[in-house]
Amino acid sequence: MLDAAERWALRRALEIAADPAVPLGPNPRVGCVLLSPAGEVLAEGHHRGAGTAHAEADALARARTDGVTTSVTGATAVVTLEPCAHRGRTGPCADALLEAGIGRVVIARQDPNPVATGGIERLREAGIEVDLDVPEELAAAAETLNRGWEHGLQHARPLVTAKIALTLDGRAAAADGTSQWITGPAAREEVHLLRTTCDAVLVGTGTARADDPTLTARRPEGALYPRQPLRAVMGTSTAPSLPDIDGAGEQVRLLTHDPSAALELLFDRGIRHVLVEGGPIVTAAFLRAGLVDELIVHLAPTLLGAGRPAVEDLSITTLANRLDLDLVDVVMLPSPGGATDLRLLLRPRRRTA
């Protein structure tokens, strides 16, 4: 059971692991805080991407900065992910903790990577106390921190979040093609924050041609967030390049109409979480292929009666074959004009044979 200092340290480790300066992609985000036996903070560290020091090694190095070595003998290492037990670009973190004289290790989440796991066993075999009994909300936060990375380990493809905005009668645009803005500023602000948590934002050539989107993550006043996603356009037809904006993410053309092929190309680039914002045709393609892991719907309390549907044909011809979704969460998003949008988080229900 964690004491108050260790609970604080784990929250802090999760916070520094999520540093927006850390690139997303094929490496997990990890934070570490070292506590003295009295519960005082000795040092903290976090992983900053492929080829950089792991969080534990970073924290130990920071305990030795400026020519002064802070003793960590008997200290507690509080980490968001199980210390690795393999040698890659850097040495095993479990061994580094042992060599430093750490006496106790608190771990929020076991490593699901079969190549790197084993740190818990190595530490315990050496007589180090390892505590995995962390508060449920902190364990959940550690899981969420690297959900794209973990999904990639399990499925060898990126996690896919599809986002759509629609009216009560399921329209994404009016009959004349206008679509800005169906939802209010609160929903739009959420979308920009969502982009900062994803490795890539994907649209089709039709959306790129019709809307000329930037696909950047911007603050309400227009400034770019520090972390920007890769901007991807999927499709074989010609489409204009996305706007070239200082500080915006790199852009890529995916010359395929096949969602599986597009995800494979992105996965090979190190992308582990894709946000599909590609309009009714691309969204339908990913849904038909069974490649949407979660669906975010911004629902506006308005009616159009005609216009473009939010999702195109799913090739469902009978009610028995409908695509059911589980409602995970509902949030009200008040708008200045008095209307209230809803944000729905849904996950497609996997059919069992």
TrEMBL record:
UniProt keyword annotations, A-Z: Hydrolase, Metal-binding, Multifunctional enzyme, NADP, Oxidoreductase, Riboflavin biosynthesis, Zinc
Residues annotated as binding substrate: 179, 215, 218, 277
Cofactor(s) of this protein: Zn(2+)
Annotated catalytic residues: 56 (proton donor)
GO molecular function, one term: diaminohydroxyphosphoribosylaminopyrimidine deaminase activity
Domain called CMP/dCMP-type deaminase: residue spans: 4-131
Pathways involved: Cofactor biosynthesis; riboflavin biosynthesis; 5-amino-6-(D-ribitylamino)uracil from GTP: step 2/4; Cofactor biosynthesis; riboflavin biosynthesis; 5-amino-6-(D-ribitylamino)uracil from GTP: step 3/4
Function per UniProt: Converts 2,5-diamino-6-(ribosylamino)-4(3h)-pyrimidinone 5'-phosphate into 5-amino-6-(ribosylamino)-2,4(1h,3h)-pyrimidinedione 5'-phosphate.
Annotated protein name in UniProt: Riboflavin biosynthesis protein RibD
Gene for this chain: ribD
